[in-house]
Hints:
Strand order of the largest sheet: 8-7-6-9-10-11-12
Radius of gyration: 21 Å
Shape: elongated
Oligomer: single chain
Low-confidence stretches: none
Number of strands: 12
Structural class: alpha/beta
CATH superfamily of the largest domain: NAD(P)-binding Rossmann-like Domain
Helix content: 25-40%
Distance between the termini: 32 Å
Strand content: 15-25%
CATH architecture of the largest domain: 3-Layer(aba) Sandwich
Amino acid sequence: MKKILVTMSVDDSYRQKMTEAAAPYGYELTFKGNASKGNADIDADDVKDVCAVLGHLPAALIPAAKKLEWLQTQSAGVDRYTSASLLPENVVLTNAVGGYGVAVSEHMTALTLAVMKNLPVYSANQVRHNWLRGTKNARQIEGATVLVLGMGNIGTNYARQMKGLGCHVIGVRRSNKPMPEFFDEQYLLEDLDRVLPQADIVAMVIPGGHQTAKLMDAHRLSLMKEGSVIVNAGRGVSIDTAALVEALRSGHISGAGLDVTDPEPLNEDNPLWDMENVLITPHIAGMLEGNRDRVSEILLENLTRFCKGEPLRNIVDKQLGY
Length: 322
């Protein structure tokens, strides 16, 4: 029997579906996922004979997985496996793109609304039992121009939601593909400096990697419209944290909604914690009730394809990182 290890926590119905999908083709599945612990507790013995892993595979165990042919992540982002070329060239890497579009985009919209309406200020006042109106007015969302950095599944879902709120939506991406629905304009990354000054809201959902590290540096933050806001649910390293602090302190950027930070977790003495115009959540945008089933469905479909020898969905270009 060829062995496959499932490290993502899946419920009993998906365990049965996966087992039934693999067994006729001579594959034996071992399930190590534990919802209460997060990532599975696995060691070198667990991976030494497996041909595939579905879920999270700790980087330290990759050298022990000498028979590995395929790694299917439970996440959309895979920079932990591509940034340092950790995976051997022959190992196919696939991700869970399509499983997080609703969850992350809704969280981004919530961050956007909260920052535009100054809700972090009022939340802090509530804790202090202070009935205070704050020092600045909320900003109107209808009619705002939104620049979405990253036009994949998550970015397109966010664009749909912002378009529904009456916004003009600009998309920026790395490759010149057809423009998805819900965007009004599309540009390439090389055009970013030219279009940044147009945006009232800059929303980031781009993958990590050397091409996007500190993409929003001091120069690009200075190009943003005076009083605009920034939202990031992609990777924290895409923003220069020190430069963001200065832009927020000066008032050039009026607010930030951050589900990801650099470093992560954010250090306790970082000034971002104490800024009343910043809302921070601990990289939990994808944690939506019922979302595990969406991701499990992607894993089940790709497992079925793998066992049948069919082309896999969501194959990652390890050079591009997506």
